[in-house]
Amino acid sequence: MFAALTIFLNVLLVLTSAFLILLILMHKGKGGGLSDMFGGGISSGAGSSGVAERNLNRITVGIAVVWSVVVVLLGVATRVS
């Protein structure tokens, strides 16, 4: 019973981790960091945040919450079994 749950949670953890990495890399840089070194500071309208950026922020936070819940559930499932 717990073995199937642990396998499912591990697969879900890998998928959410990969998706979270991709989402974070899609964010534009705020300036002054490594993103400027690779051409991230050339963007026009650096202070403006459009609908797409806000939706990207919401999706990133949602996936981060799912990732955190999966980590906690995986810890509980591992301790119980």
Secondary structure: elements and pairs:
Elements: H1 2-26, H2 34-37, H3 51-80
Number of domain modules: 1
Order of helices and strands: HHH
Give helix % range: over 70%
Instruction: Report how far apart the termini are.
Output: 9 Å
Q: Nearest-angstrom radius of gyration?
A: 17 Å
Mean pLDDT, all residues: 83
Number of strand segments: 0
Roughly what fraction of the amino acids lie in strands? under 5%
Low-confidence stretches: none
Architecture overview:
Involved in protein export. Participates in an early event of protein translocation. InterPro entries: SecG. It comes from Isoptericola sediminis. GO terms for molecular function: protein-transporting ATPase activity. This is Protein-export membrane protein SecG. The chain is mainly alpha-helical. The chain has one domain. The chain is built from 3 helices and no strands. Helix 1 packs antiparallel against helix 3. The radius of gyration is 17 Å and the shape is elongated. It starts with a helix and ends with a helix. The model has no long low-confidence stretch (mean pLDDT 83).
